[in-house]
Amino acid sequence: MQNAVYLGMKFKEKKLLTREKILSLIKGELTNAKILYATKEELIEILKNERKEKFLLEFERLNNQSTNEKIEEILDFIRFIAQKLDEKRAIIALQTGLSLLNKNRKDCAIKAKNALKEDGIFGNKTKASLYEACKNYNSRVIKKYILKGVLNNIIFNTKNETNIDTQKLLQNTKLYLEEKI
Q: pLDDT (tens digit, 9 = 90+) per residue, 148-178?
């Protein structure tokens, strides 16, 4: 396809970026005349600027969140995970993620930073650990650690199962959950 260009991103395999793909990414913020007469390079530049603006807005939002807003966002993410798995596994993923975030400490002076017992119960220790994490990190960082907890638990739960393709399950789960982070 001669009319296709590559974005300057590094992929394992290069994907063609057609004019139609660029236009679908811009999502109608241009007039019809601009779309018809703009070059691909101009459209790519518009797309880059739009993504940069979205990134800066998200950065600003994350830096200005209150602790309660962070907790609510994390709990929404846990509810989303619970829809795919179940509530107990989602809480276990939260506990694993918080323990990983806190470096699995055993004897920290701040009790909320110690590793959690992964029992699937959203008790006082889990709440305290989540609150402490929300005081120190933004919600995106915490959600990434929860994702690590989900992936970690998949590995340990399926490592001895010969009829389960663990690698494919990990990839699918990661793709599914990363769009919510």
A: 999 999 999 888 888 888 899 899 999 889 8
Residue 93 token pair = 């993923």
Sign for the pseudo-dihedral over CA of 79, 85, 87, 90: negative
How many residues appear in the chain? 181
What pTM was computed for the model? 0.71
Burial class (CB in 10 A: 0-12, 13-18, 19+), 124: exposed
Q: In whole angstroms, give the CA distance from residue 97 to residue 145.
A: 5
Do the beta carbons of residue 102 and residue 113 sit within 8 Å? yes
Residue tagged 């989602």 (tokens):
90
Token pair 């110690």 is found at 114
Three-state SS letters, the chain: CCCCECCCCCCCCCCCECHHHHHHHHCCCCCHHHHHHCCHHHHHHHHHHHHHHHHHHHHHHHHCCCHHHHHHHHHHHHHHHHHHCCHHHHHHHHHHHHHHHCCCECCCCCHHHECCCCCCCCCHHHHHHHHHHHHHCCHHHHHHHHHHHHHHHHHHHHCCCCCCCHHHHHHHHHHHHHCCC
Q: Render pLDDT for 37-74 as a digit per residue (tens, 0 to 9).
A: 777 788 788 778 888 888 888 889 888 999 999 999 99
